[in-house]
Amino acid sequence: MNRVKKAGSKAPTAHHEENTVKFTSRLTLVAALLATAGFAHAQTVLTVASFKDLDRSVQAAIPLYKKVHPEVEIKLVALGYGDHHNAMTTALATGANLPDVMGIEIGFVAKFAEGGGVEDLSKPPYNALQYKDKFFKFAVAQATSRGGIFAAMPADIGPGALFYRKDLMDKAGVTEAQLTKSWPSFIDAGKTLKAKTGSFLIPHASAIKDIMIRSGLKDGEGIYFDGKGKVLVDSPRFVNAFETAKQARAAGIDAKIGAWSNEWSEGFKRGTIASEMMGAWLAGHLKNWIAPDTKGNWRSAGIPGGVNASYGGSFYAIPKGAKNKELAWDFVKFMTTNKEVQIAAFRELDAFPVLVDATNDAFVSQPIEFLGGQKAREQWKATAAKIPATEVDKLDPVAQEVVNAEFDKVLEQGKDVKAALADAKKAIERRIRH
């Protein structure tokens, strides 16, 4: 509107002009306050559901994300590993209490994908496969179901490593070369260690079985099933794994203690267990809460026999029933394709980056004090580059459960290895039919 002074109107006085300025200023201030208040209430809330430890990656990323999206409030809901995945399974089945972004571990990717409750990120508007060459190739395969659904974006990986107590090995006269040369050499080293120090080499013989069933795989193959869904658990790969683990038990080198138990962590603290085979992330757990007082005594080495395998891995999925899918996708991309965010997670909780470019950061070459100054991240990076792109199947958890049950019968009841694996195959095939 044009403000034209009408003919005959009185010219404004100085006092009138001063009051007008004050009134206008007050209006401006009130408007600004209202706008600010409105902005605060209008913030978009993005709900991210995660499990413990992975939630620390999200916490580390929130300040970085707020820099580019100050209008977004991240509501992080974190539960223990089992409780979280049970809650997500229920939420996807019922459509209730769904988050916008769902953190999931590798063992649940195929199950959630084939269940139909999460978005296929390979399709528009996501087109996530445009980023696949930025990631370690095996992580892309892990995120893809047998039906071709790209169910989740990979966030971190777990290149396998052998963590061992160098002080105990030195005391026993055992070298790293003896530990890594071959499985027979590994078992012999364990016998020497036990005789000289009284310590067990590994917590449980199943550690050998678990890594050996992942050895010798080629791109496109699965651990328990081939590309057509055929059950593979009676193959020479499984026979060798069972037999070698059985030999380890007979040699007395395992403490017969399951992973993640109180006895397991106490064994590392007290030095009664001298090594463990897991993902690179175990270094962070040992340092932060399992055995912090053993700083400097641990080293990282390759898996015996030159096996290159992945232990675990974390992913982010978007439920089909999510309320803020566009923003959820933006956040998922931020967590998985942003180099700064990936490195922040690496520093915070030793979550090895899935983004190849992030592993070129100088941080990778820094010595790790807990590992006696070893530059172990370079070793983990080399392993990650060699891990085959193994297929996942929604029935992998079922097959794993059946195989583990039969393995226990071999160790505890003396059941014949081939008979145990034949029974495992029948049980898995029966579960498939039903």
UniProtKB/TrEMBL annotation:
Localization terms from the record: Periplasm
Signal peptide: 1-42
Domain of life: Bacteria
GO CC term (a single one): periplasmic space
SUPFAM superfamilies, per the entry: Periplasmic binding protein-like II
Primary subcellular site in the record, as a coarse category: periplasm
Keyword vocabulary terms for this entry: Signal
Keyword Endoplasmic reticulum recorded: no
Family: Belongs to the bacterial solute-binding protein 1 family.
Name of the featured protein: Extracellular solute-binding protein
Species this chain originates from: Piscinibacter terrae
